[in-house]
Amino acid sequence: MSDIPEPIRNPDIHYTKIFINNEYHNSVSGKTFPVYNPATEEKVADVQEGDKADVDKAVAAARAAFKLGSPWRTMDASQRGRLMQKLADLIERDRVYLASLEVVDNGKPFADAYDADLGEVINVIRYYAGWCDKICGKTIPADGPMFCYTRHEPVGVCGQIIPWNYPLSMFTWKIGPALACGNTIVMKPAEQTPLSALYMGKLFMEAGFPAGVINIVPGYGPTAGAAIAEHMDVDKVAFTGSTEVGRIVQQAAGKSNLKRVTLELGGKSPVIVFADSDLDFAVANCHHALFWNMGQNCCAGSRTFVEESVYDEFVKRSVERAKKRKVGEGFQSGVEQGPQVNQEQFDKILGLIEEGKKEGA
C-alpha cells in the first residue's frame, strides 16, 4: 500500500449536469435526482436526470465525432495514446479529490479508494494508452493473384452502463479499451454514484479530447440505461451489473439493431480450503475475498468450501477475524469497512442473513 495522504473530508461537488459534446447540460425534462452520502444518509447533491431524450442527444454527438474525416477519426493512433496518457496525468493530479469524492458518493474507506481504486484507474488508462498504436491486422497468404489482409477498425458508438460498487474503476475499465481502439462513448454511471464520472468530463476536456468522443448521461436504468441498450444508432453496449438486468440489456440489443453486447454479471465465486493449507493464510484471504469493498463485488469469494477435518478450526479463526474488522465512516483512520451503498442493499444483506439462519446456517 502506498503512503496515504490526508483526504478532503468535505469535497466540493463541481459537476452535477449531463456531459455531452464537451459541455455540461441540464436534462431535457428538467428533472433531477438526489445523491446521498451512505455513511450519513445526507443528501450530497441533486444531479440532472437523463432519459431517452438526453441519450438521443448524446448518441448524436458520439456519432458526429465518429464520422469519417472528424478530428477523432483522422487523429494518429499515437496521438490518441498521448491524450490518454494526459488523462492519466490529470487523474493522478486530482487523485486525492477523486478518492474523497468516492468516499462521499460510495462510502468505501478512503485508503481503499485512494490506493486500490485510483491506483488501478491510473494504471488502466496508461495500459490502454500503450495499445493505441499497436492494434494490427494481418497479411494472409492466398492462392492466385490475390492480396489478402485483415484490418482492425473501431466498432463505432459504444454505450456503456456501469454499477455503483467501483464507480471510477468501472468507468475506466469501460472507456480504456474503447478509446484505445478509436470508438466514441455514451456512458451511463450508476444513479447511486454519478459524481466522479461527471467530474471526469472536465478532465476529458482538459486533456484535449475532441467534442463528442465521450458523453456521460446520469440517470436510471429503466429510462437512460434502456434507451442506450435499445438505441438504433448505438453499435455496441457493455454492461456490468446483475444477471437479471443483463438479460434485459441483451434482449434490448437483439430486438433493436442486433448491436454487439458485452456483459459482466454477478457470480458466486467459490474458495476451496484443504486440510494441508496454511490455515492462517487461508482465513486471511477468505476474509478479504468476502468482506473487501463491504462485500460489494461481482467476483466476491462468497462461497467457501472447507475440508471437514479443519472445518471447525477454520470457522473459529474466521469468526475471530471478522470480529476484529473495524467498521465505520470512510474518512475515519483505520476503517476497513464502510457502509453499504444504500439502505436497499443494507436491508437485502440482512434479509439474506436471516434467510440463512432459517435454513440452518
Helix-strand layout with pairing:
Blueprint: E1 18-20, E2 23-25, E3 32-36, E4 43-48, H1 52-66, H2 71-74, H3 77-93, H4 95-106, H5 110-129, E5 139-140, E6 148-149, E7 157-161, H6 167-180, E8 184-188, H7 195-207, E9 214-216, H8 221-229, E10 236-241, H9 243-255, E11 260-265, E12 270-273, H10 279-291, E13 303-306, H11 308-324, H12 343-358
Parallel strand pairs: 7-8, 7-10, 8-9, 10-11, 12-13
Antiparallel strand pairs: 1-2, 3-4, 5-6
Helix pairs in contact: 1-8, 3-5, 3-7, 4-5, 5-6, 10-11
Describe the structure.
The chain is α/β, with parallel strands linked by helices and 361 residues long. 45% of the residues lie in helices and 15% in strands. It contains 12 helices and 13 strands. The strands form 5 sheets. It has a 5-stranded parallel beta sheet, with helices on both faces. Helix 9 links the parallel strand 10 and strand 11. The longest helix has 20 residues. It is globular. It starts with 17 loop residues before the first strand and ends with a helix.
In summary, what is this structure?
This protein has 361 residues and is an alpha/beta fold. It has helices at residues 52-66, 71-74, 77-93, 95-106, 110-129, 167-180, 195-207, 221-229, 243-255, 279-291, 308-324, 343-358, and strands spanning 18-20, 23-25, 32-36, 43-48, 139-140, 148-149, 157-161, 184-188, 214-216, 236-241, 260-265, 270-273, 303-306.
